[in-house]
Design a protein that fits this description.
Mean pLDDT: 88
Structural class: mainly alpha
Distance between the termini: 56 Å
Strand content: under 5%
Strand order of the largest sheet: 1-2
Low-confidence stretches: 412-420, 438-448
Oligomer: single chain
Shape: globular
Largest sheet: 2 strands, antiparallel
Length: about 550
Amino acid sequence: MGPEGMVDLAYTINQQRQSQLESVPGYDPNDPDTDYGVRWDRTNDAWLSAQATLSICFGTATNSSAWTPKHRSDYAEELAGLVTDEDQPYYMPLGFNLLLEGANRTAANTAELDGEAAQAGGVFSKYFLQDLGNAIQAHEKTSEGYPAWREMMLKTSSPEGSIGDWDPMAGILTAMGRQPDAALDFLAPPVDDRATEQTVKVDGTTWEWLQGRAWDSTSFEALTAAFAGASEHRQLTTGTKDERAAWITEQAVVDMAGRKDGLWTNTSRQNAAVVLANSMQEIDESANETENSRKDSAFNGSLPAGWEGYHPEEVKKLLQETLKDDVALQTVSDAAGRYTSSRMDSSLDELAADAGYQEAYDQVAQTRRIDGQLLGYIQGAAEKGRGDAAAEKDATNQMILNAFGKGLSFIPGPQSAVAGKALSIAESYALDAAGDALPSNAQQAQNEAIDMQKEAEQRLMVETYVKLDQRGFLPPGAYEDEDGAPYTDKDWMKPDREGKLHIDADTIYSSPDNMREFTGWINNDPDVSKVSRDARESTAGFNEGVKRGKG
Protein backbone atom coordinates (compact mmCIF):
# COMPACT_ATOMS: atom_id res chain seq x y z
CA MET A 1 0.00 0.00 0.00
CA GLY A 2 1.28 3.46 -0.86
CA PRO A 3 1.82 6.32 1.62
CA GLU A 4 -1.56 7.93 1.05
CA GLY A 5 -3.37 4.64 1.55
CA MET A 6 -1.51 3.96 4.82
CA VAL A 7 -2.23 7.42 6.20
CA ASP A 8 -5.84 7.21 5.11
CA LEU A 9 -6.24 3.84 6.86
CA ALA A 10 -4.70 5.18 10.09
CA TYR A 11 -7.10 8.13 10.04
CA THR A 12 -10.09 5.89 9.26
CA ILE A 13 -9.34 3.60 12.22
CA ASN A 14 -9.33 6.59 14.53
CA GLN A 15 -12.57 7.94 13.06
CA GLN A 16 -14.21 4.57 13.58
CA ARG A 17 -12.95 4.52 17.14
CA GLN A 18 -14.47 7.88 17.91
CA SER A 19 -17.74 6.99 16.19
CA GLN A 20 -18.04 3.72 18.09
CA LEU A 21 -17.26 5.41 21.40
CA GLU A 22 -19.99 7.99 20.82
CA SER A 23 -22.52 5.22 20.24
CA VAL A 24 -21.71 3.04 23.28
CA PRO A 25 -25.16 2.72 24.92
CA GLY A 26 -25.74 3.50 28.54
CA TYR A 27 -27.35 0.07 28.87
CA ASP A 28 -26.79 -3.00 26.72
CA PRO A 29 -29.53 -5.69 27.00
CA ASN A 30 -27.12 -8.22 25.50
CA ASP A 31 -24.58 -7.49 28.25
CA PRO A 32 -26.64 -6.21 31.20
CA ASP A 33 -24.08 -7.06 33.87
CA THR A 34 -21.29 -4.92 32.40
CA ASP A 35 -21.43 -1.23 33.21
CA TYR A 36 -20.98 1.59 30.72
CA GLY A 37 -17.39 2.43 31.70
CA VAL A 38 -16.15 -1.11 31.13
CA ARG A 39 -17.85 -1.38 27.74
CA TRP A 40 -16.48 2.03 26.72
CA ASP A 41 -12.96 0.96 27.66
CA ARG A 42 -13.27 -2.30 25.73
CA THR A 43 -14.39 -0.49 22.61
CA ASN A 44 -11.64 2.11 22.93
CA ASP A 45 -8.94 -0.51 23.51
CA ALA A 46 -10.06 -2.63 20.57
CA TRP A 47 -9.62 0.27 18.14
CA LEU A 48 -6.37 1.43 19.77
CA SER A 49 -5.09 -2.12 19.34
CA ALA A 50 -5.86 -1.87 15.63
CA GLN A 51 -4.06 1.47 15.50
CA ALA A 52 -1.01 -0.02 17.22
CA THR A 53 -0.99 -3.05 14.92
CA LEU A 54 -1.00 -0.89 11.82
CA SER A 55 1.92 1.18 13.13
CA ILE A 56 3.86 -1.95 14.14
CA CYS A 57 3.39 -3.55 10.71
CA PHE A 58 4.45 -0.36 8.96
CA GLY A 59 7.54 -0.01 11.15
CA THR A 60 8.51 -3.59 10.40
CA ALA A 61 8.19 -2.92 6.67
CA THR A 62 10.58 0.05 6.81
CA ASN A 63 13.25 -2.23 8.32
CA SER A 64 12.65 -5.05 5.85
CA SER A 65 15.40 -6.11 3.48
CA ALA A 66 12.73 -6.02 0.78
CA TRP A 67 12.90 -2.24 0.96
CA THR A 68 16.00 -1.01 -0.83
CA PRO A 69 17.57 2.24 0.42
CA LYS A 70 16.12 4.03 -2.64
CA HIS A 71 12.62 2.65 -2.07
CA ARG A 72 12.77 3.66 1.59
CA SER A 73 13.94 7.16 0.68
CA ASP A 74 11.30 7.56 -2.04
CA TYR A 75 8.55 6.31 0.27
CA ALA A 76 9.62 8.75 2.99
CA GLU A 77 9.61 11.59 0.48
CA GLU A 78 6.07 10.74 -0.66
CA LEU A 79 4.87 10.33 2.92
CA ALA A 80 6.32 13.71 3.95
CA GLY A 81 4.67 15.24 0.88
CA LEU A 82 1.27 14.43 2.33
CA VAL A 83 1.85 16.94 5.15
CA THR A 84 3.91 19.53 3.29
CA ASP A 85 1.40 20.05 0.44
CA GLU A 86 -1.75 21.83 1.56
CA ASP A 87 -3.61 20.60 -1.54
CA GLN A 88 -3.65 17.12 -0.05
CA PRO A 89 -6.78 15.99 1.88
CA TYR A 90 -6.96 18.11 5.03
CA TYR A 91 -6.78 15.16 7.45
CA MET A 92 -3.43 13.85 6.22
CA PRO A 93 -1.42 15.30 9.17
CA LEU A 94 -3.74 13.53 11.62
CA GLY A 95 -3.34 10.18 9.89
CA PHE A 96 0.41 10.75 9.49
CA ASN A 97 0.87 11.07 13.26
CA LEU A 98 -1.40 8.14 14.07
CA LEU A 99 0.55 5.93 11.69
CA LEU A 100 3.87 6.76 13.37
CA GLU A 101 2.69 6.92 16.99
CA GLY A 102 0.31 3.99 17.23
CA ALA A 103 -1.66 3.92 20.48
CA ASN A 104 0.31 6.56 22.42
CA ARG A 105 3.52 8.61 22.64
CA THR A 106 5.56 6.65 25.20
CA ALA A 107 9.25 6.18 24.51
CA ALA A 108 9.04 2.83 26.33
CA ASN A 109 6.55 1.82 23.60
CA THR A 110 4.07 0.14 25.92
CA ALA A 111 0.31 0.44 26.23
CA GLU A 112 -2.38 -1.17 28.35
CA LEU A 113 -5.02 -2.52 26.00
CA ASP A 114 -7.96 -4.53 27.30
CA GLY A 115 -6.15 -5.06 30.59
CA GLU A 116 -3.02 -6.47 28.96
CA ALA A 117 0.38 -4.95 28.26
CA ALA A 118 1.01 -4.43 24.55
CA GLN A 119 3.41 -2.73 22.17
CA ALA A 120 2.12 0.75 21.48
CA GLY A 121 3.54 1.44 18.02
CA GLY A 122 6.07 0.60 15.36
CA VAL A 123 9.85 0.66 15.52
CA PHE A 124 10.95 2.34 12.30
CA SER A 125 14.15 2.44 10.29
CA LYS A 126 16.37 5.23 11.59
CA TYR A 127 17.09 6.37 8.03
CA PHE A 128 13.38 6.51 7.25
CA LEU A 129 12.70 8.68 10.32
CA GLN A 130 15.63 10.96 9.59
CA ASP A 131 14.39 11.47 6.02
CA LEU A 132 10.95 12.41 7.36
CA GLY A 133 12.36 14.79 9.97
CA ASN A 134 14.68 16.47 7.49
CA ALA A 135 11.85 16.89 4.98
CA ILE A 136 9.56 18.60 7.51
CA GLN A 137 12.39 20.82 8.74
CA ALA A 138 13.32 21.87 5.19
CA HIS A 139 9.69 22.62 4.36
CA GLU A 140 9.05 24.74 7.44
CA LYS A 141 12.27 26.69 7.12
CA THR A 142 11.40 27.70 3.55
CA SER A 143 7.67 28.29 4.06
CA GLU A 144 6.21 31.78 4.12
CA GLY A 145 3.56 32.05 6.78
CA TYR A 146 2.08 28.90 8.24
CA PRO A 147 3.48 25.51 7.18
CA ALA A 148 1.19 23.33 5.09
CA TRP A 149 -0.03 21.21 7.99
CA ARG A 150 -1.27 24.32 9.83
CA GLU A 151 -3.11 25.48 6.73
CA MET A 152 -4.69 22.04 6.45
CA MET A 153 -5.80 22.22 10.08
CA LEU A 154 -7.54 25.53 9.38
CA LYS A 155 -9.63 23.88 6.67
CA THR A 156 -11.58 21.77 9.16
CA SER A 157 -15.18 22.80 9.77
CA SER A 158 -14.90 21.73 13.41
CA PRO A 159 -11.77 21.15 15.55
CA GLU A 160 -10.27 17.65 15.43
CA GLY A 161 -7.77 17.18 18.23
CA SER A 162 -5.14 19.58 19.51
CA ILE A 163 -2.35 21.31 17.60
CA GLY A 164 -0.04 18.50 18.64
CA ASP A 165 -2.29 15.98 16.90
CA TRP A 166 -1.69 17.88 13.65
CA ASP A 167 1.99 18.73 14.00
CA PRO A 168 3.84 16.04 11.98
CA MET A 169 6.90 16.40 14.21
CA ALA A 170 4.85 14.85 17.01
CA GLY A 171 4.63 11.57 15.13
CA ILE A 172 8.25 11.70 13.99
CA LEU A 173 9.66 12.52 17.44
CA THR A 174 7.55 9.83 19.10
CA ALA A 175 8.89 7.25 16.66
CA MET A 176 12.42 8.53 17.23
CA GLY A 177 11.98 7.97 20.95
CA ARG A 178 11.57 4.29 20.13
CA GLN A 179 14.59 4.35 17.80
CA PRO A 180 17.49 5.86 19.83
CA ASP A 181 19.91 6.01 16.88
CA ALA A 182 17.47 8.16 14.91
CA ALA A 183 16.81 10.42 17.91
CA LEU A 184 20.49 11.06 18.58
CA ASP A 185 21.49 11.65 14.97
CA PHE A 186 18.55 13.98 14.38
CA LEU A 187 18.75 16.01 17.59
CA ALA A 188 22.53 16.07 18.08
CA PRO A 189 24.44 15.34 14.86
CA PRO A 190 28.17 16.06 14.75
CA VAL A 191 29.35 19.09 12.83
CA ASP A 192 31.98 16.82 11.29
CA ASP A 193 31.37 13.08 10.89
CA ARG A 194 35.12 12.52 11.09
CA ALA A 195 35.40 14.04 14.56
CA THR A 196 36.68 12.02 17.51
CA GLU A 197 35.42 12.08 21.08
CA GLN A 198 38.10 14.68 21.88
CA THR A 199 37.22 16.98 18.94
CA VAL A 200 33.49 16.44 18.38
CA LYS A 201 31.19 19.46 18.23
CA VAL A 202 27.43 19.13 18.01
CA ASP A 203 25.42 20.78 15.26
CA GLY A 204 22.66 22.43 17.27
CA THR A 205 20.61 23.85 14.39
CA THR A 206 17.85 21.21 14.61
CA TRP A 207 17.54 21.68 18.35
CA GLU A 208 17.35 25.46 17.90
CA TRP A 209 14.58 24.97 15.32
CA LEU A 210 12.62 22.74 17.68
CA GLN A 211 13.08 25.15 20.58
CA GLY A 212 11.23 27.80 18.60
CA ARG A 213 8.21 25.55 18.18
CA ALA A 214 4.91 25.99 20.01
CA TRP A 215 4.37 22.89 22.13
CA ASP A 216 1.13 21.71 23.68
CA SER A 217 0.81 18.75 26.04
CA THR A 218 0.38 16.34 23.10
CA SER A 219 3.44 17.38 21.10
CA PHE A 220 5.45 17.80 24.32
CA GLU A 221 4.92 14.10 25.00
CA ALA A 222 6.55 13.45 21.62
CA LEU A 223 9.47 15.80 22.33
CA THR A 224 10.16 14.12 25.68
CA ALA A 225 10.03 10.74 23.93
CA ALA A 226 12.77 11.82 21.51
CA PHE A 227 14.86 13.13 24.41
CA ALA A 228 14.47 9.75 26.11
CA GLY A 229 15.56 7.90 23.00
CA ALA A 230 18.67 10.03 22.51
CA SER A 231 19.62 9.69 26.18
CA GLU A 232 19.95 5.91 25.74
CA HIS A 233 23.34 6.58 24.18
CA ARG A 234 24.77 7.80 27.48
CA GLN A 235 27.09 4.81 27.62
CA LEU A 236 30.87 4.94 27.52
CA THR A 237 32.01 4.39 23.93
CA THR A 238 35.08 4.97 21.79
CA GLY A 239 33.06 7.05 19.33
CA THR A 240 31.18 10.32 19.75
CA LYS A 241 27.77 9.00 20.72
CA ASP A 242 28.06 9.48 24.47
CA GLU A 243 29.46 13.00 24.03
CA ARG A 244 26.55 13.95 21.76
CA ALA A 245 24.04 12.22 24.05
CA ALA A 246 25.42 14.19 27.00
CA TRP A 247 24.99 17.41 25.04
CA ILE A 248 21.35 16.82 24.10
CA THR A 249 20.35 15.53 27.53
CA GLU A 250 21.84 18.63 29.12
CA GLN A 251 19.81 20.81 26.75
CA ALA A 252 16.75 18.64 27.41
CA VAL A 253 16.91 18.82 31.21
CA VAL A 254 17.36 22.58 31.22
CA ASP A 255 14.49 22.94 28.74
CA MET A 256 12.07 20.57 30.49
CA ALA A 257 12.79 22.06 33.91
CA GLY A 258 11.50 25.39 32.60
CA ARG A 259 8.20 24.02 31.30
CA LYS A 260 4.97 24.99 33.04
CA ASP A 261 2.87 22.53 35.04
CA GLY A 262 -0.04 22.57 32.57
CA LEU A 263 2.12 21.06 29.82
CA TRP A 264 2.92 17.88 31.73
CA THR A 265 1.13 14.54 31.48
CA ASN A 266 2.04 11.18 32.98
CA THR A 267 3.36 10.12 29.58
CA SER A 268 5.74 13.07 29.37
CA ARG A 269 6.79 12.45 32.98
CA GLN A 270 7.62 8.82 32.18
CA ASN A 271 9.61 9.89 29.14
CA ALA A 272 11.48 12.53 31.14
CA ALA A 273 12.24 9.91 33.79
CA VAL A 274 14.21 7.95 31.19
CA VAL A 275 16.34 11.03 30.53
CA LEU A 276 16.95 11.47 34.26
CA ALA A 277 17.67 7.79 34.81
CA ASN A 278 20.27 7.95 32.04
CA SER A 279 21.74 11.04 33.74
CA MET A 280 22.26 9.54 37.20
CA GLN A 281 25.79 10.90 37.41
CA GLU A 282 24.41 14.45 37.25
CA ILE A 283 21.67 13.65 39.79
CA ASP A 284 24.41 12.29 42.05
CA GLU A 285 26.38 15.51 41.64
CA SER A 286 23.30 17.57 42.52
CA ALA A 287 22.52 15.41 45.54
CA ASN A 288 26.07 15.63 46.88
CA GLU A 289 26.84 19.17 45.66
CA THR A 290 29.92 18.06 43.78
CA GLU A 291 31.29 18.19 40.25
CA ASN A 292 32.88 14.83 39.61
CA SER A 293 35.93 14.45 37.41
CA ARG A 294 36.79 11.34 35.46
CA LYS A 295 40.26 11.56 37.00
CA ASP A 296 38.96 11.42 40.59
CA SER A 297 38.41 7.66 40.71
CA ALA A 298 38.12 4.52 38.64
CA PHE A 299 34.34 4.69 39.05
CA ASN A 300 34.13 8.21 37.64
CA GLY A 301 36.42 7.13 34.83
CA SER A 302 33.96 4.38 33.92
CA LEU A 303 31.11 6.87 33.39
CA PRO A 304 30.13 8.21 29.96
CA ALA A 305 30.81 11.80 28.96
CA GLY A 306 29.21 14.31 31.31
CA TRP A 307 27.47 17.62 30.84
CA GLU A 308 29.47 20.76 30.16
CA GLY A 309 27.61 22.74 32.81
CA TYR A 310 26.40 22.22 36.37
CA HIS A 311 22.60 22.45 36.74
CA PRO A 312 21.52 21.40 40.25
CA GLU A 313 18.44 23.65 40.33
CA GLU A 314 17.17 22.36 36.98
CA VAL A 315 17.80 18.74 37.99
CA LYS A 316 15.93 19.20 41.26
CA LYS A 317 13.01 21.01 39.64
CA LEU A 318 12.65 18.39 36.92
CA LEU A 319 12.79 15.56 39.46
CA GLN A 320 10.06 17.18 41.53
CA GLU A 321 7.80 17.35 38.47
CA THR A 322 8.69 14.00 36.94
CA LEU A 323 8.41 11.90 40.10
CA LYS A 324 4.71 12.72 40.45
CA ASP A 325 4.10 9.66 38.27
CA ASP A 326 4.52 6.17 39.78
CA VAL A 327 6.28 4.59 36.78
CA ALA A 328 8.63 7.58 36.55
CA LEU A 329 9.34 7.38 40.30
CA GLN A 330 10.30 3.72 40.09
CA THR A 331 12.34 4.16 36.93
CA VAL A 332 14.56 6.79 38.54
CA SER A 333 14.79 4.93 41.87
CA ASP A 334 15.78 1.69 40.15
CA ALA A 335 18.45 3.50 38.11
CA ALA A 336 19.79 5.04 41.32
CA GLY A 337 20.09 1.57 42.83
CA ARG A 338 22.04 0.32 39.81
CA TYR A 339 24.33 3.34 39.98
CA THR A 340 24.96 2.78 43.70
CA SER A 341 25.63 -0.91 43.13
CA SER A 342 28.14 -0.12 40.41
CA ARG A 343 29.93 2.38 42.64
CA MET A 344 30.26 -0.28 45.34
CA ASP A 345 31.56 -2.78 42.80
CA SER A 346 34.09 -0.30 41.51
CA SER A 347 35.44 0.37 45.00
CA LEU A 348 35.95 -3.37 45.54
CA ASP A 349 37.64 -3.73 42.15
CA GLU A 350 40.40 -1.45 43.39
CA LEU A 351 41.38 -3.82 46.21
CA ALA A 352 44.51 -5.93 46.07
CA ALA A 353 44.03 -9.64 45.39
CA ASP A 354 45.05 -10.55 48.96
CA ALA A 355 42.81 -7.98 50.68
CA GLY A 356 40.99 -9.19 53.80
CA TYR A 357 37.53 -8.70 55.26
CA GLN A 358 38.38 -5.57 57.27
CA GLU A 359 40.00 -3.84 54.32
CA ALA A 360 37.18 -4.81 51.95
CA TYR A 361 34.51 -3.57 54.34
CA ASP A 362 36.26 -0.28 54.93
CA GLN A 363 36.65 0.20 51.18
CA VAL A 364 33.00 -0.29 50.29
CA ALA A 365 31.80 1.62 53.37
CA GLN A 366 33.48 4.79 52.08
CA THR A 367 30.59 5.40 49.68
CA ARG A 368 27.90 4.90 52.34
CA ARG A 369 27.22 8.57 52.98
CA ILE A 370 27.02 9.68 49.36
CA ASP A 371 24.89 6.66 48.46
CA GLY A 372 22.47 7.54 51.25
CA GLN A 373 22.47 11.14 50.09
CA LEU A 374 21.51 10.14 46.54
CA LEU A 375 18.54 8.07 47.74
CA GLY A 376 17.47 10.83 50.14
CA TYR A 377 17.62 13.39 47.35
CA ILE A 378 15.23 11.35 45.22
CA GLN A 379 12.89 10.82 48.16
CA GLY A 380 12.92 14.53 49.03
CA ALA A 381 12.20 15.56 45.44
CA ALA A 382 9.34 13.06 45.23
CA GLU A 383 7.87 14.26 48.51
CA LYS A 384 8.01 17.90 47.41
CA GLY A 385 6.58 17.21 43.96
CA ARG A 386 3.80 14.85 44.98
CA GLY A 387 2.73 16.69 48.14
CA ASP A 388 1.50 13.40 49.59
CA ALA A 389 -0.57 13.09 52.71
CA ALA A 390 0.72 10.68 55.34
CA ALA A 391 -0.74 7.47 53.88
CA GLU A 392 0.25 8.31 50.32
CA LYS A 393 3.72 9.30 51.52
CA ASP A 394 4.22 5.83 52.96
CA ALA A 395 3.15 4.31 49.65
CA THR A 396 5.56 6.56 47.75
CA ASN A 397 8.41 5.67 50.08
CA GLN A 398 7.69 1.96 49.65
CA MET A 399 7.82 2.29 45.86
CA ILE A 400 11.15 4.13 46.09
CA LEU A 401 12.65 1.50 48.39
CA ASN A 402 11.41 -1.45 46.34
CA ALA A 403 12.71 -0.02 43.08
CA PHE A 404 15.99 1.13 44.63
CA GLY A 405 16.49 -2.32 46.14
CA LYS A 406 15.70 -3.96 42.80
CA GLY A 407 18.32 -1.76 41.16
CA LEU A 408 20.88 -2.53 43.86
CA SER A 409 20.63 -6.25 43.22
CA PHE A 410 20.27 -6.07 39.45
CA ILE A 411 23.93 -6.06 38.38
CA PRO A 412 26.06 -8.70 40.12
CA GLY A 413 29.81 -9.00 40.15
CA PRO A 414 32.68 -6.77 39.07
CA GLN A 415 32.90 -4.34 36.17
CA SER A 416 29.17 -3.71 35.98
CA ALA A 417 27.83 -1.30 33.39
CA VAL A 418 26.65 1.93 34.98
CA ALA A 419 24.74 4.06 32.54
CA GLY A 420 22.33 3.74 29.68
CA LYS A 421 19.37 1.54 28.79
CA ALA A 422 16.92 3.26 31.12
CA LEU A 423 14.22 2.61 28.50
CA SER A 424 14.29 -1.06 29.49
CA ILE A 425 13.84 -0.08 33.15
CA ALA A 426 10.89 2.18 32.30
CA GLU A 427 9.38 -0.50 30.09
CA SER A 428 9.50 -3.08 32.89
CA TYR A 429 7.63 -0.81 35.31
CA ALA A 430 5.14 0.26 32.63
CA LEU A 431 4.44 -3.41 31.90
CA ASP A 432 4.03 -4.07 35.63
CA ALA A 433 1.57 -1.19 35.85
CA ALA A 434 -0.41 -2.54 32.89
CA GLY A 435 -0.53 -5.94 34.54
CA ASP A 436 -1.54 -4.45 37.92
CA ALA A 437 1.69 -5.70 39.48
CA LEU A 438 2.28 -2.34 41.14
CA PRO A 439 0.39 -1.98 44.42
CA SER A 440 -1.89 1.00 44.61
CA ASN A 441 -1.42 3.77 47.14
CA ALA A 442 -4.44 2.49 49.02
CA GLN A 443 -2.93 -0.99 49.31
CA GLN A 444 0.48 0.32 50.29
CA ALA A 445 -1.05 2.60 52.90
CA GLN A 446 -2.26 -0.44 54.79
CA ASN A 447 1.35 -1.27 55.62
CA GLU A 448 3.10 0.11 58.66
CA ALA A 449 4.46 3.62 58.40
CA ILE A 450 7.87 3.56 56.74
CA ASP A 451 10.92 4.99 58.45
CA MET A 452 12.87 5.95 55.34
CA GLN A 453 16.06 6.72 57.26
CA LYS A 454 16.09 3.27 58.82
CA GLU A 455 15.07 1.52 55.61
CA ALA A 456 17.74 3.31 53.57
CA GLU A 457 20.38 2.38 56.15
CA GLN A 458 19.27 -1.26 56.05
CA ARG A 459 19.18 -1.48 52.25
CA LEU A 460 22.70 -0.13 51.92
CA MET A 461 23.96 -2.32 54.75
CA VAL A 462 22.45 -5.46 53.23
CA GLU A 463 23.92 -4.66 49.84
CA THR A 464 27.34 -4.13 51.40
CA TYR A 465 27.35 -7.61 52.87
CA VAL A 466 25.88 -9.18 49.73
CA LYS A 467 28.78 -7.78 47.71
CA LEU A 468 31.35 -8.86 50.28
CA ASP A 469 29.77 -12.30 50.19
CA GLN A 470 29.79 -12.43 46.37
CA ARG A 471 33.46 -11.50 46.24
CA GLY A 472 34.47 -14.01 48.91
CA PHE A 473 35.62 -11.39 51.43
CA LEU A 474 33.56 -12.67 54.39
CA PRO A 475 35.56 -14.97 56.68
CA PRO A 476 34.53 -18.66 56.77
CA GLY A 477 33.27 -18.28 60.33
CA ALA A 478 30.61 -15.81 59.15
CA TYR A 479 28.62 -18.75 57.80
CA GLU A 480 29.02 -20.93 60.90
CA ASP A 481 27.45 -20.97 64.33
CA GLU A 482 29.40 -20.93 67.58
CA ASP A 483 30.00 -24.69 67.33
CA GLY A 484 31.58 -24.33 63.89
CA ALA A 485 28.63 -25.91 62.08
CA PRO A 486 27.08 -24.21 58.99
CA TYR A 487 24.03 -22.12 59.79
CA THR A 488 20.80 -24.00 59.08
CA ASP A 489 18.31 -21.72 60.80
CA LYS A 490 18.72 -18.62 58.64
CA ASP A 491 16.37 -18.58 55.65
CA TRP A 492 18.39 -15.79 54.04
CA MET A 493 21.56 -17.90 53.91
CA LYS A 494 21.10 -20.22 50.96
CA PRO A 495 23.44 -22.89 49.62
CA ASP A 496 24.75 -22.74 46.06
CA ARG A 497 25.23 -25.81 43.85
CA GLU A 498 28.39 -26.69 45.73
CA GLY A 499 26.66 -26.39 49.10
CA LYS A 500 28.39 -23.13 50.10
CA LEU A 501 26.14 -20.65 51.91
CA HIS A 502 25.49 -17.19 50.45
CA ILE A 503 23.43 -14.18 51.51
CA ASP A 504 20.12 -13.72 49.66
CA ALA A 505 19.01 -10.09 49.80
CA ASP A 506 15.46 -10.71 48.56
CA THR A 507 14.82 -13.11 51.43
CA ILE A 508 16.15 -10.59 53.94
CA TYR A 509 13.80 -7.91 52.58
CA SER A 510 10.85 -10.30 52.47
CA SER A 511 10.00 -10.03 56.17
CA PRO A 512 10.81 -7.88 59.20
CA ASP A 513 11.83 -11.04 61.07
CA ASN A 514 14.50 -11.82 58.50
CA MET A 515 15.77 -8.24 58.59
CA ARG A 516 16.00 -8.31 62.39
CA GLU A 517 17.82 -11.64 62.26
CA PHE A 518 20.26 -10.29 59.68
CA THR A 519 20.92 -7.24 61.85
CA GLY A 520 21.49 -9.48 64.83
CA TRP A 521 23.99 -11.53 62.81
CA ILE A 522 25.94 -8.36 61.98
CA ASN A 523 25.98 -7.32 65.63
CA ASN A 524 26.61 -10.65 67.31
CA ASP A 525 28.47 -13.05 65.07
CA PRO A 526 32.10 -12.66 66.25
CA ASP A 527 33.49 -13.13 62.74
CA VAL A 528 31.30 -10.35 61.36
CA SER A 529 30.91 -7.87 64.23
CA LYS A 530 34.62 -7.23 64.63
CA VAL A 531 34.69 -4.63 61.84
CA SER A 532 33.57 -1.04 62.25
CA ARG A 533 30.07 -0.32 60.98
CA ASP A 534 29.29 3.07 59.50
CA ALA A 535 25.54 2.78 59.04
CA ARG A 536 25.13 6.17 60.68
CA GLU A 537 26.95 7.67 57.71
CA SER A 538 24.19 6.54 55.33
CA THR A 539 21.58 7.97 57.71
CA ALA A 540 23.31 11.36 57.89
CA GLY A 541 23.73 11.39 54.12
CA PHE A 542 20.09 10.43 53.58
CA ASN A 543 18.82 13.25 55.80
CA GLU A 544 20.95 15.80 53.99
CA GLY A 545 19.80 14.47 50.62
CA VAL A 546 16.13 14.81 51.59
CA LYS A 547 16.65 18.47 52.48
CA ARG A 548 18.34 19.19 49.16
CA GLY A 549 15.71 17.30 47.16
CA LYS A 550 12.90 19.29 48.77
CA GLY A 551 14.70 22.64 48.61
